[in-house]
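Forgive a beginner's question, but might I ask you for the amino acids of a protein and the tokens describing how it folds?
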Amino acid sequence: MAVPGKVAAFRLPPLPTVGEIIKLFRLKALKQLSQNFLLDLRLTDKLVRQAGELKNAHVCEVGPGPGGITRSILSAGVEQLLLIEKDARFIPGLKILSEAAPGKVHIVHGDILTYNMEKAFPKHLKKNWEDEPPDIHIIGNLPFSVSTPLIVRWLENVSKKDGPFIYGRTQMTLTFQKEVAERLTANPGGKQRSRLSIMSQHLCTVENCFVIPGQAFVPKPEVDVAVVRFTPLVQPKIQQPFKLVEKVVRSVFQFRRKYCFRGIETLFPESGRLKRTEQLMMTANVDPTLRPFQLSMSQFRNLCNTYRKMCDEDPSLFAYNYREELRLKKTTGLLISTSQPEQTEEENQL
């Protein structure tokens, strides 16, 4: 008997197990798509709990596959669940879940990399950036091949407050290879400190929630998997455009094992490179003999702020591309070498 005054918790009716759905529709994980299924509902429940309170929330699940995590999300009592699945083989199994939760599930057969997230949720859910996060969550067991480019894209959306973050500081709970998760959450001086560490932590609070052993997945991947939660910050730690921060950070980590000035040099054209590098490091008050992974967030902020001033003074500077300069040098060198006449045997002897 229901307790008076309390809303009954949503429960899915009896359904085929995820394993039975896989057999029923003859589903196989495709290696070329980096697919790995999580079938243990205790683990999918634990993953979904990391997202926080989902009762009456609106959730987007990325790549639901056979629907293991989908069941745990629905059992959490969400208001609406948007499923974005690229692989058409999984749609019939997801429709079974949709029919078991009438009016709650919307299935999109499409690619998350091209899907317009700005129209994914009702407008009334929008909140100001300074407010608490909206009642919107993104959850997903991401294929390894997609996880890094996707989180970089979403971090850029956080910076611009567009895409899924047009609604406010939308929270994300996602899976990554354990090593990638360690990079995302690494502290200064840590061996995993990388470009991803800076790009994620200057925009979000990033939490490594727990590790799922590889043997929990079907097929078993060669690595363990970690669940990571992202909550966008009200104020980014580096208040510069995303592309500028990304360019500085990428340059610094270009020569990870060398002194940081070696990477910073690549921000500048060959003409005047040394002088400008010294100017940047001196103004930013950064020790040029530190390794990239030793730099703190405040030091990266100083580098980005100083580089921005230098770009304002010389607008052509931001467009400079070190790799392009190397490529042109190489091409020019090849042209010169091929245009020279071959030496005779006599000249070779001389």
Observations:
- Confidence is low (pLDDT under 50) at residues 1-8, 338-350.
- The first strand starts at residue 37 and ends at 38.
- The two ends are 104 Å apart (CA to CA).
